[in-house]
Design brief:
single chain; alpha/beta; 8-stranded parallel sheet; 12 helices; about 25% strand; globular
Length: about 350
């Protein structure tokens, strides 16, 4: 197998603002794994809080040598090698880089076997639910414009909150839409008491779920809030990989699984299983990503209670066609082998 890659910064259609930062692009690296003329695609997307960069991802990928693996279907051996490649660097994480390889390998295997990945996982595509479309923090007029742009295409909206003016933001959306809302505070509320007051009000506004209301390490506050919240509390920044799922029992109602955080589809599937064993709800999310990584995450969509798979819709330079579709607000999985991707132009 041969690995190739190149940086591919993603350009956002709108400046994206959450509690703590704003950005107009996201660093990204596109990769390809080729075996006997068949190519699987993957990517590493790196929003600021992951602590990875184009330089760190490319440095990790430079170390990856797949030439000794002659059978792509031996995924366990290959991914074990990749996962432990940086064991000599205890401070390194490289989860996005590992996710890129995991995604490309699953795409390659699906194409070789002639099956979409969800079918190889034994899942039922009809179980996919609505995905949200994310509305970043902005002025009321810009927020209304963003909502109008996606009117009729989505069954739910996700609203970034966690700053002064949260209630005004929600009220401005309610002037133009009555869709169910989820909100994501991105750790923006500083106390559990403040968060509870906000959540109790949000429940009166048609909000159905709250994501990461408090700082990620404030587990005592999250436990207190979870015991009292009238809405489900889903944690994102507090959870990265499988090792976090068990320790968060009682601190939330569910977890947000993202491929870039945990290292790809293999650890994501384990996280789903662990969450269900703990009685937790499951949310599948994404970063700002191309259709490649969003489609990869969507292969697990039948397992999820909540979906936030809109990262490819937030960018203006997506290099792929095919993959998943959103029809009447619901995620619809592809039936083509692998991820079903069609490069729009030469991406590598």
């Amino acid at each position: 197998m041969q690995l190739s890659f190149r940086p591919y910064p993603l350009q956002l259609q709108h400046t994206f603002t959450v509690s703590g930062c704003s950005r107009s692009q996201t660093p990204d690296v596109i990769i390809a794994i080729t075996h006997q003329g068949v190519t699987g695609y993957g990517e590493a997307s790196m929003p600021p809080y992951l602590g990875e960069s184009i330089q760190s991802v490319c440095a990790f990928l430079e170390r990856v040598d797949l030439s000794s693996f002659n059978d792509p279907l031996r995924t366990d051996d290959i991914l074990t090698y990749v996962m432990h490649l940086d064991d000599d660097e205890p401070a390194a994480h490289n989860f996005a880089a590992k996710a890129a390889i995991d995604i490309a390998l699953h795409d390659l295997v699906g194409q070789i076997l002639g099956q979409p990945i969800w079918r190889l996982f034994g899942l039922t595509p009809e179980r996919c639910t609505y995905t949200t479309y994310t509305i970043g923090i902005d002025t009321p007029e810009v927020v209304k414009q963003k909502v109008r742009e996606v009117e009729g295409r989505f069954g739910r909206l996700k609203v970034k909150v966690g700053v002064e003016g949260d209630r005004e933001l929600i009220k401005s959306i309610r002037e133009v839409s009555d869709l169910p809302l989820t909100v994501d505070a991105n750790q923006g509320w500083t106390s559990a008491e403040e968060a509870l007051r906000q959540i109790e009000w949000l429940q009166t506004q048609g909000v159905i779920m709250v994501e990461q209301p408090l700082p990620k390490h404030n587990l005592e506050g999250l436990r207190w809030l979870t015991e009292r919240s009238p809405l489900p509390i889903i944690l994102d920044e507090s959870v990265q990989g499988p090792e976090d799922v068990v320790r968060l029992k009682g601190c939330c109602h569910g977890i947000n699984i993202k491929l870039m955080k945990c290292g790809g589809l293999a650890p994501a599937r384990l996280m789903v299983q662990l969450a269900r064993l703990q009685g937790m709800q499951v949310m599948l999310g994404c970063m700002t990503e191309t259709t490649c990584a969003v489609t990869a995450a969507a292969q697990l969509a039948p397992c999820a209670d909540y979906l936030d798979l809109d990262g490819n819709l937030l960018i203006s330079n997506d290099p792929f066609r095919g993959g998943i579709q959103v029809i009447d607000g619901r995620v619809t999985l592809q039936t083509e082998p692998g991820l079903g991707l069609i490069p729009e132009f030469r991406v590598l």
